[in-house]
Design goal:
This protein is mainly β and 186 residues long. Helix content is 6%, strand content 42%. The chain has a two-stranded parallel ribbon. A two-stranded antiparallel sheet has the order 2-7. It is elongated and about 95 Å long.
């Protein structure tokens, strides 16, 4: 999800169109005949030391305990179809590039009525034309005339939302850093 610096500063609420697997209308599930709904099968083997018992995941249902008894048209082997859904995502203020937001229960549905998966939203930050981000700090490079550097003056500096006036002290040297407290990101 690509966000502007202003959306990152204040937080946002976005709607995403996603493709996800949902239970097909008309798909029906029944108890697995192989494991009788247990999700696992027990095998007993006779050896010269006696009987050895092993438990494994049911190969017929994959450990679910249910199988698809009737599939909806266009559904896969689990009775699921791919549909488009609209999901509302609340973005907290101060997120960073590459951060992943986990939205519980908004991913693909599980076969046989299991717990739905999670949706992961990866944050991407759109470049700002005048500000560069360093964590929660914002940097702006301002060029001033030699007269303003020697005698002092005022300049206007862009912020995420609006601008701020900054006083240039007389005798300011090149590469001087002026800090504006509380004007960065949360």
């Amino acid at each position: 999800l690509k966000l502007t610096l202003a959306e990152i500063a204040t937080g946002a609420e976005k709607q995403l169109r996603i493709q996800k697997l949902v239970r097909g209308k008309g798909s029906e599930y029944g108890t697995c005949a192989t494991c009788k709904g247990q999700g696992q099968v027990t095998r007993v083997q006779s050896t010269f030391l006696g009987h050895m018992q092993t438990v494994a995941t049911c190969p017929a249902c994959g450990g679910i305990g249910q199988t698809v008894s009737k599939r909806a048209p266009g559904s896969d082997e689990h009775g699921l179809v791919r549909e488009e859904a609209v999901v509302t995502v609340k973005i907290p203020a101060g997120v960073e590039e590459g951060m992943q937001l986990n939205i519980s229960g908004m991913g693909n549905e599980a076969p046989a009525g299991g717990v739905p998966g999670d949706l992961y939203v990866v944050i991407e930050e759109a470049a700002h034309p005048e500000l560069k981000r360093d964590g929660s700090n914002l940097h702006h490079e301002a060029f001033i005339s030699i007269v303003d550097a020697a005698l002092g003056g005022n300049i206007e500096v862009p912020l995420v939302n609006g601008a701020a006036k900054v006083k240039i002290e007389p005798g300011t040297q090149p590469n001087k850093v002026v800090r504006l407290r509380g004007k960065g990101l949360p």
